[in-house]
Design a protein that fits this description.
The chain has 7 helices and 14 strands. It is an alpha+beta fold. The protein has 2 domains: 3-205, 2-Layer Sandwich (BirA Bifunctional Protein, domain 2); 213-257, SH3 type barrels. Strand 10 (213-217) and strand 11 (224-232) form a beta hairpin. The two termini are 34 Å apart. Bound molecules: biotin. Residues 27-29, 48, 51-54, 57, 59, 68-70, 116, 126-128, 144-146 line the site of biotin.
Length: 260
């Protein structure tokens, strides 16, 4: 990892206060939760040993090939709007990837509710959001991002669902450049968190799930239920219609796509 380049591009009078780098680390999100890191810190490792994903799943990466980092950012936001940071972060990651990949004429890169990035029907990135100081106006967000960039091999069970940028475009990419573009966009467009209508409108423009058949899984149980996505409301809630015609709105959970 070229930390010198990241420091030159991103730190001091620019975007970040500090970059903390570990060659190896259990999990950037766990480390950030245990240690008191200041706002505008980027915590990054080349080899994340026990990465965690949503639903307490494992998040596996190939050392030095993929991006695993957590951005620590204090944001003044109401408790009922905390989930907007998920939409914001995934939207910024998506536009940053499109910007970086613009010369490749990429069509099929999109967002999946609530915060995954999908490339040709399979997942390339996920976000794990942890929040500290929930009772304060100023909340500390730990935005953990895993992006499969140059990994070529995936475990058998993940192959139908996961991919990497290199597997889709057949070119090795510079992970530092992707990170630099992401951090710049993240700090330059922060106003969107306060303009939630504009944020959700932008997010919706980059998703393909509306009107599609999905399997929906609630956070609290293991069951998947087939449904159709009716919409994503301006407050971020996912409105689905189940097969028995019940319409429900969810703020958390997971969907898997039944289309490509
Ligand atoms: C998901 O389940 O889709 C979210 C995956 C988030 C993985 C990232 S990698 C960096 C950060 N540290 C972790 O342990 N998890 C997140």
């Amino acid at each position: 990892m070229n930390i010198a380049l990241l420091n030159t591009e991103l730190v001091k009078d620019k975007y970040l206060n500090e970059i903390i780098y570990f060659e190896e680390l259990d999990s950037t999100n766990s480390y950030a939760k245990k240690n008191n890191l200041g706002s505008d810190t980027l915590l990054i490792t080349s080899n994340q040993l026990r990465g965690t994903g949503r639903f307490n799943r494992q998040w596996k990466t190939t050392p030095s090939k993929d991006l695993t980092f957590s951005l620590i950012k204090n944001i003044d936001i109401r408790i009922d709007e905390v989930h907007l940071v998920n939409f914001y972060s995934s939207y910024i990651l998506l536009i940053s990837l499109k910007e970086y990949l613009s010369s490749f004429n990429i069509q099929d890169i999109s967002l999946k509710w609530p915060n995954d990035i999908i490339f040709n029907g399979r997942k390339i990135a996920g976000i794990l959001l942890d929040v500290k100081d929930l009772k304060n106006d100023l909340k500390k967000f730990i935005i953990g991002i895993g992006l499969n960039v140059n990994s070529k091999e995936f475990p058998e069970d993940l192959k139908p669902k996961a991919t990497s940028i290199i597997n889709e475009i057949k070119s090795e990419l510079n992970i530092e450049m992707i990170l630099i573009i992401f951090i710049k966009n993240f700090f330059e467009k922060l106003y969107l968190i306060k303009s939630k209508d504009e944020l959700m409108k932008n997010w919706l423009m980059h998703t393909k799930i509306v009107g599609k058949k999905i399997n929906f899984r609630k956070i609290e149980d293991d069951k998947e239920q087939p449904a159709t996505v009716i919409n994503i409301d301006p407050d971020g809630g996912l409105k689905v219609k189940f097969e028995d015609d019940r319409i429900k709105k969810y703020y958390s959970g997971e969907i898997s796509l039944l289309y490509n």
